[in-house]
Design a protein that fits this description.
339 residues, alpha/beta, inorganic pyrophosphatase (n-terminal core), Diaminopimelate Epimerase, Chain A, domain 1, six-stranded mixed beta sheet, 12 strands
Amino acid sequence: MTTQDILDIKSLLATPKKIVVIPHKNPDGDAIGSTLGLLHYLLKLNHDAVIVAPNDYPEFLKWLPKEDSILKYDTQTVESENIINHADIIFTLDFNALHRTGNMEPVLERSDAIKIMIDHHQQPDNYAKYMFSDVSMSSTCEMVYHFLTKLEALEVVDKDIATCLYVGIMTDTGSFRFRSTTSTTHRIIADLIDKGADNTQIHNNVFDTNSFNRMQLLGCALSNLKVLPEYNTAYITLSQDELQQLDYKKGDTEGFVNYALSLNKTVLAAIFIEDKKQGIIKISLRSKGDFSVNEMSRAHFEGGGHTNAAGGKSTTSLEATVEKFISILPTYSKALNNE
């Protein structure tokens, strides 16, 4: 994002506008944290601003300030489309290709609003007039902090904004343990704490709200864990029947794939989750070192993400998807065994 871009955006935001802020489909902590953090800032400037999410998100994010104002496109379609159609500016956060919004893609493509992208994923599409894209960043929430810095607006960051941004940085860095966590990340976190983010309470709200059924589901996932030592790979499967038997709720499988990655010598981990309603197998991939699950997901599973964290999908059966995954591992054998 150039100096001229920043000047243009400051000029755009100088007077009240109708603004829509949009996360990706199945939004996670970074998507919800970044959109809410930006929303609070825009409201302080007296903009008519609203978040429209493609669909719902996990319960562990539903305590964040102004979370209850978020519209869900899949259940509030008419209202959402009306707001998007009349927007002056659309911010897209934590994604860089409009298809990541699912059924919202056509209405966003038709909109003549000025689009501003803030995102840290690889290979962005060229749909936004202003693009703040940086794959080296730990999270979109960290990028929103830098965005506010560029706008010379850090003085408006209060407890609510700090809390939202803290959540996204914490969740997207695996509680600050992933390689993308830099000294700058920690300095930003320190400033957010100084501005009112209660780190202990935030961690408790996100991670210490497990239901009995979620713990049972984790037990099921771990019992399905398989290890392929010749490829330093581990994977987990969860069928639709298993999810239903344990009363699965959105977000319940968050972080499960990391248990597979935590195994000694494991370089590549995957979880395959059956979703018969959508007719797909949801795939999450994680890796250590320089092994790129982003490249693997883009090449084989219609997805993408980061070097060490990516997602994808398959339209075949759970069994066939796992068979495909195993069949491509010999292609990556050298890389997996060199890490």
